[in-house]
Amino acid sequence: MDLDPASAGLPADKDASEPGRAAERIAFTVDPAIIRSLIREQASTVEKAIAELVMNAVDAGADEIHIAVDQAGFTVRDNGRGFASRNEILTCFRRFGAPHVAGDATFGRFRIGRGQIMHWARCSWRSNTFEMTVDIQDPARGISFDLHEHDDIHAGCLVTGHFYRLHPQGPASAALSSVIGAAIEHPKRSPIAHLVAYVDAAVFLNGVRINIRPSEQRPDGKRRAWTRVDDLAYWRLDRHEETLRFYNLGVLVRTVPASEYGVGGLIITRMPLSLNMARNEIIQDEVSLTIESHLETVFAAHLKRHIEPTDAETACLIKMCLGDGLDGFAVSPARLSKLKIFKSPDGELHSYADVCRFSHVVLTPPGLDAIAERIYKSKEAFPLKLDLFPDLLDECDDDWEFAEETFYDDLWYQVANGLDPYDDFECPSGASFAYLAKATAITQNVISPDDLTPDEADGFNVACLINRELFGADRTLHPGASDAASAWTDGENYIAIERRLLGRAIDDLPAHAELILTLVHEYAHRGASLGAHTHDLAFYKRYHDMTLSPSLLVMLTSSIGGLTVAQAEAAGDLTLHFADDSDTTPAPTSSDS
């Protein structure tokens, strides 16, 4: 649709071809506030800002870089080319984002990295006969720098910074203090060292070498050999590492969980990665795609070699099923269905083929592992851990029924299709956790001692004796009836012992020992053990300490010994001999025994 400027109330276009009316071309400018914002947004941490100065030194051809850090500020001194001329300063230092010429820099891409340190400190750059000073917190200067020319020549480049005063209670102040403290006390373990660990130049922090060139690294007690070295990178991959670190030409740019690629370790590229402006995200290109391809190859090789994947490998495999699928993945469906990636509530690992022996699967809500174990023992369904599907966690907090529906209608079948694409097994359907919890509910009732059988009553009396001798009867004992639990407690006032255990304990050695240890178990509970409950590390420590107490060991020995004698007497197998003067039976010798 053509719009008539006059009818729209707009001025008519001027004809630029008319004599005397040639268009004037005017370049856009950037307000200083934008530059200030760029500096601020880049400056995530002071250690990253100092790492940027190290990268600038490497770009300038330096092979030795000395960093000094104290409470007042820092210096970064290198033996690189520095700034050769005033024109270079005006072209490259003054102008943020000046384009690079291909091959003129190892790290540089945007020419804005130096701005990071300006956020943290009042800085000066001294190189050749030039000195540039920057103080963006000085209102009189604004976004500008002072250029001085000296008579003497400074080889390389020296960057000096005086830290700005930060709010003493603010997070930035705490972070800065932490970096300074680590640099002074533990240079090799400092955040700065962590970032520049494999730079291809000798880097020193407060006089201590903090990096190693990858080509110089040799396996020793602390360092392992590279698992692969090629034109692309130095690789050290390990399926048991929890994280995978990416170093761009020796500078750390990204750390991800091992579950991201199914393998952990570190990769130090020998070719530059494409990075975003903040240098904390990798932009997909030929280099990164080649790296990802090799990581997938290594991941597949591990799955072919190990039937029990690590947690990271399992998480990666599930993520692949829920993402693009496993088409083209170098592990056969027959192998995938046998990988033991599902953990049952008793801690055993099971394959998809094992899970398919159940008619149903059920997603376990957070904190209800005990009920899941009950469902598993009933064989009604195989409980699946929620941590296999982290994307569901937020939905679980809001609407569990919706989370279950999403899981059963979509996610579970994606996983099943990934692990068994040819439907060699019948996929279990989803079941409601609430329904199965109710269907397998445990009944637990305290009953009167008058309702016990004679054997159960005798067992109850023995239990009361043990309770007094071992625990001073701190909790009242009651007989109980349950379809699943052998005992339970409120964690403070009482313990109930299931009547069937009481009946067996009177004349059965294993049951007698079980009765004693069951009492110890319930006393180790500081909270209620009715219905669903958990055993944390503190519980196991209490139980461990109580089972090793001398009084318990004496009780076990005497009780079991007494029960053994009673059983022998009842069976008529026990004969007591009393020696007298007429007894001439010789004592047994070692050969007789």
Q: Which segments are poorly predicted (pLDDT under 50) over 5 or more consecutive residues?
A: 574-593
The N- to C-terminal Cα distance equals 116 Å
Question: Count of DSSP helices?
Answer: 19
Order of strands across the biggest sheet?
3-4-2-1-5-6
- Please compute the radius of gyration using only Cα atoms: 37 Å
What is the CATH third-level topology name of the largest domain? Heat Shock Protein 90
CATH class of the largest domain: Alpha Beta
Architecture overview:
With 593 residues, the protein is α/β, with parallel strands linked by helices. It has 4 domains: 32-209, Heat Shock Protein 90 (2-Layer Sandwich), CATH 3.30.565.10; 214-305, no CATH class; 311-439, no CATH class; 444-570, Zincin-like (2-Layer Sandwich), CATH 3.30.2010. The protein has helices at residues 32-42, 46-59, 86-93, 115-120, 171-185, 191-195, 286-305, 311-322, 333-336, 352-355, 369-378, 393-398, 400-419, 433-439, 454-471, 499-505, 509-524, 537-547, 550-571, and strands at 64-69, 73-78, 121-134, 145-163, 202-205, 208-209, 228-229, 233-238, 243-248, 251-257, 264-269, 340-343, 349-351, 360-363, 382-384, 429-430, 444-446, 476-482, 487-489, 494-498. The radius of gyration is 37 Å and the shape is elongated. It starts with 31 loop residues before the first helix and ends in a 22-residue tail after the last helix. Mean pLDDT is 85; it is low at 574-593.
